[in-house]
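Hey, I'm writing a tutorial for new members on how sequence and structure tokens pair up, and I'd like a real worked example in the thread rather than a made-up one. If someone can provide the structure for the chain below, I'll link this post from the tutorial.
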Amino acid sequence: MSIWFQHSVVAAGKLRLFSFFVAFIMTFLFIRFSVRMIRAQVRWWPGNVTPGGVHVHHATFGLIFMCVGGVGGLVVQETRSGWAVGAAALLGIGMALVLDEFALVLFLKDVYWSEQGRLSVEVVFIAVALCGLALLGWLPMGITPSSGRDTRLVTLLGIALVLATNLALTVICLLKGKTWSGILGIYISLFAVIGAIRLARPGSPWARSRYPRDSRKLARAIAREERYRRPVTRFMTWFQDFVAGGPDHSGD
């Protein structure tokens, strides 16, 4: 393990990214454990932070950590120093706290334990996936760094073409309602290609604008949604609830 860490993380210049990644995951797991204890009204666990009767959401603390970690990371020159690692960890802590309440920021109301609150967990999972891929060495848009200093026009045009194609495929995936294919396609082009050429999900912007109500494509999309997507969605919902806690249906 130590040999892998030295070779794949330290020597590869990914020590700060590794620190950010670990801090992000650990903070998210901790804060979800904390809010579930508060939700269950466990006596031995500290409650919400409410100075003067005002409920201070943990996204507020997250913003502070992000500011300190982000600015601190810019100030530190030596990327392998303890200060650089600490700044990256603070940034990861802050981002986890903020993204855990992403839905609250988006809807500007407390939807933490509602169905809308699931969006926060989905965003966190996406962030973990993208950061994990970067840590493993995947580069966005399928671009690989050149070992030389070749800046010829042909090379630049080739890079621009790859970027434009991959970005277009990613946008198509998102328009077709294939969020994971689009996001992962930023790093692994194959996901974007497959997602772009397959049928759109029913209800997606692509399906609403290009699949007439009585068309075969819409019928096939609905059938595929029921046969393949529903089981995956149920499993993802179960896993999200297992990790982060399920929404409150008492008001339904």
